[in-house]
Structure formats: structure tokens, C-alpha cells
């Protein structure tokens, strides 16, 4: 059992040590896969949309698919007022999706298994939503924490509760994604270990492992979808706060 270390795949390792003025700017496996995910998205969209026409070919239609998917999500949850955020939310969706999918390949690293990465994305969303909320509604954005019609005497209790709930959103978003990625990938590692240890008798467990891999691809998409959907719901507070 000494070879079974399912959590070792989530260790952040330094690939190229870089230290500048006392700051550690080393390139890690997590950072390299984030750069790789970003590069794949940029190159893929660039190739698909470089000769964009009103009547798209298959490659262009495939490149536009994520935008159409997120646009439908935004229209359903935010209405037409949320359309300016389609590009931003599509970038979030593709980044999370690529992070989830890349980690399913051998010797790859799942950077969405790192809470700090997920929290940074969720905190970015919170900052964008909050700043836009004040730009759009001014001081009236604070009504989000004390809706109209609520008696003022309950404000000392309600406002802190609503504020804590609002600020805790990045935590809940990041932990949800982190937990699903770590749990799923750990189960795959455990099943793969037992399948290999059984040798020729591992045919049946191998079939189960293949099924789990297919399921994890589905989970990778669902988690990216949920992350983006919850971001839309947070944006909705800004667009329709009264």
C-alpha cells in the first residue's frame, strides 16, 4: 500500500526557481498548467475565429459554442442587462473547464484542486460584481444588505449577517470546486492502483475505472457550469438590487 498516495498528485512543485528582490516568483507545476490552459484557450479561439463570417464553418461554430452556452446562461439568470459580462464569464468558464479537464490526463496537474486558485477566481468575480454594483447603483447598492421594507430596528442584526454572507461567497465557491476535484481525482487514483496491483485479474476493475474516467469528464464540465452559474447569480444581485 506504500505506493498508494492519492493526494500526492495535488502537491505543488517548483519547476524553475526564480527569486527577485526577495520574492519567490518560481514557476510551479500549478502555474505552468494554468499558463498551458490559457494558451490552449487563446490558440483554440484564435484559430476558430480568425476568419469569422456571418455564416460560420464548423471550426468557427465550435469556437463560438462556449460563448453561446454562457450567453444563454446569462440571459436566463440576468436578462439582457447581463450581456456585457458574457465575455468575462466565458473566460471564467473556459479557464475552470480546462483546469478540470487537463488534470484527468496522466502526469498532469489539476490546478482547480488548489483552494487559492479557486478563491482568486471567486474573489475576482466578487470584486467585479461589487465595483459594478457601486458604478450602476451608487450608494443604493448597499440596499442589498438592507432591502426596502425591512424595519430599521432589525438592521443591526440583518446587515452584519448579510455582509458576512456576501463576503463568504468566494469561500463557498472555491471550496465547492476544490472538494469535487480532489475527491474525484483521488478515487481515480485509488481505483487505478488496485487495478494495476491485480494484474491480469484487473479486467473488471479496469472497466470500472474507464467508467469513472468518463464520469469525471462529465463532473469536470458540470463543476465549470456550476461555478459560472453561481457567478451569474451573484451578478444578478448587482443588476437587480433595489
Question: Could you give the topology of this structure?
Answer:
Elements: E1 14-16, E2 19-20, E3 23-24, E4 27-28, H1 29-49, H2 58-78, H3 86-102, H4 115-137, H5 155-167, H6 169-198, H7 203-239
What does it look like?
With about 240 residues, this protein is mostly helical. The protein has one domain. The protein contains seven helices and four strands. The protein has helices at about 30-50, 60-80, 85-100, 115-135, 155-165, 170-200, 205-240; strands spanning about 15, 20, 25, 25-30. The strands form two sheets. It has a two-stranded antiparallel sheet. The chain has a two-stranded antiparallel sheet with strand order 2-3. Strand 2 and strand 3 form a beta hairpin. The protein is globular and about 70 Å long. It starts with 13 loop residues before the first strand and ends with a helix. The mean pLDDT is about 85.
Key terms for this structure?
7 helices, mainly alpha, two-stranded antiparallel sheet, 242 residues, two-stranded antiparallel ribbon
Amino acid at each position: 500500500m506504500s505506493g498508494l498516495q492519492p493526494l500526492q498528485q495535488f502537491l505543488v512543485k517548483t519547476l524553475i526557481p526564480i527569486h527577485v528582490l526577495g520574492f519567490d516568483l518560481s514557476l510551479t507545476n500549478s502555474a505552468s498548467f494554468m499558463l498551458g490552459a490559457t494558451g490552449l484557450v487563446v490558440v483554440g479561439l484564435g484559430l476558430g475565429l480568425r476568419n469569422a463570417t456571418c455564416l460560420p464553418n464548423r471550426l468557427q461554430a465550435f469556437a463560438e459554442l462556449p460563448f453561446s452556452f454562457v450567453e444563454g446562461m446569462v440571459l436566463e439568470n440576468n436578462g439582457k442587462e447581463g450581456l456585457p459580462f458574457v465575455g468575462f464569464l466565458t473566460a471564467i468558464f473556459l479557464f475552470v473547464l480546462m483546469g478540470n479537464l487537463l488534470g484527468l490526463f496522466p502526469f498532469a496537474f489539476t490546478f482547480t484542486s488548489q483552494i487559492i486558485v479557486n478563491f482568486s477566481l471567486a474573489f475576482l468575480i466578487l470584486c467585479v460584481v461589487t465595483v459594478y454594483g457601486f458604478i450602476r447603483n451608487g450608494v443604493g447598492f448597499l440596499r442589498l444588505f438592507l432591502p426596502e421594507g425591512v424595519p430599521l430596528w432589525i438592521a443591526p442584526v440583518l446587515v452584519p449577517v448579510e455582509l458576512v454572507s456576501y463576503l463568504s461567497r468566494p469561500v463557498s465557491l472555491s471550496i465547492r470546486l476544490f472538494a469535487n476535484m480532489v475527491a474525484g481525482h483521488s478515487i481515480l487514483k485509488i481505483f487505478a492502483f488496485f487495478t494495476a496491483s491485480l494484474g491480469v485479474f484487473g479486467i473488471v476493475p479496469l472497466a470500472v475505472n474507464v467508467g469513472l474516467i468518463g464520469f469525471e469528464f462529465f463532473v469536470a464540465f458540470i463543476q465549470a457550469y456550476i461555478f459560472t452559474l453561481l457567478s451569474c447569480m451573484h451578478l444578478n444581485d448587482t443588476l437587480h438590487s433595489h
